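thread: overnight batch results

M.L. [08:02]
morning all. the overnight job finished for the chain we discussed friday. pasting input first so we're all looking at the same thing
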Amino acid sequence: MAMTVTETPRKRAANARSSRLPLMTPAERRANGKSLREKAPRAAHAEWRAHHTRADPVDILRAADATRQRDLVPLRYGRMIQSPFTFYRGSAAVMAADLAQTPVSGIHVQACGDCHLMNFGGFATPERRLIFDINDLDETLPAPWEWDVKRLAASFVLAARSNGFSDRTGRNAAETCAHSYRQGMHEFASMSVLDVWYARLDDKQFLAMVPKQRREFISKRIAKATAQSSSELVFPKLVDTAGEQPRIHDTPPTIFHADASTSAGNIDLMRRFLPEYRKTLSEDRRALLDRYRLVDAAIKVVGIGSVGTLCMVVLMLSVADDPLFLQVKQANASVLEPFAGKSAYAHHGQRVVMGQRLMQPASDLFLGWVTGPEGRHFYMRQLRDVKLSPRIETYDAGMLSIYAKACGWVLARAHAKAGDPWAISSYLGKRPEFDVAIGKFALAYADQAEQDHAALLAAVRTGRVEALREE
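M.L. [08:03]
and the structure it wrote out:
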């Protein structure tokens, strides 16, 4: 008797976008990738023109406010109105809707979802090696690989404009990023599957890309960040030790305990969180977590796009009073979901964790997830584990191009790790058509982001949106 299996819509969507590749040889994958140029010519990626039915970008932003803490929403808009570049960093949902209208080859990867240049940087692996990679994956979801490339490239044009550079400089950086992605994908398509998973860009390799006059400055930053554990470095800045017990120091509006009752509630919340979060860790990491005790918890406002989602910093101390800081971050549905389909994971914290493990060459020791009050989803990790963020505002044109090269290679590695590097590489080809197209798209979409930023400023002036500027 035949057995009928009924698939739920979620399971059907997950199966359609599974990272498990169909059984094809590399040669067959390459042929398939090349054939996709007929469906989506590489030159077609240059196109950007807002459709007449395009939704109001301010409406898209405000729709997401429903999942945020109401009192922090004005701070989010205050950060976004500073410049078109800061607007872009906080408007992933707007671009997701726009990217859904652009040509795609049809190859899906585990995508970042919010792939701009400030979401890359240095961080430590569990083996204490410093690597350069994608470090913010809150929006990760299986989706077309082109979406990440286009968002990343456009961010370089906006960063160039923010630094006072010409559009020629911005376009060159965008093309360099696309070229590095294309060359990197060729490299990964020729490697063994295991070697792709082992590939990474460490601090020494990154420094080798940098001009000699900048190496000393960056080397000093690296040395300072790696001299001690991240928690030991952060402890004096974040903790007040004057009382009977260490307490996270309030520095509103970015870190605060709110009122006394809320502070006590945060501690109670974490006491309930920890056992459930612990279950999502591997057995060896549970043993490590068990060596620490909960001491304090406070609200922490982070980034631009995440402002208003509940984020907490948690202070824990070992039996020897060594500090450990954990970050608890709310995870909502990915901005890509309306256009790429629902996640295979019903829990968005788990979606983020699994996406990080698929895209990064190494992930945080304490990466896990938990469900909080009112069914809200969270993921947890260490706070600033030897984190080095790029100081884009100090970059000249040459350094911006070098950074674009590093980001392009890293993104290709992330996509190749669980994607189809053979098909993508063959689709991209050996000639620069794709690079040039992405440069054109980046310029056009940067113009769109500036128009959307102006629309947000107008909404603030008319009172439609409340914005709080930080002093």
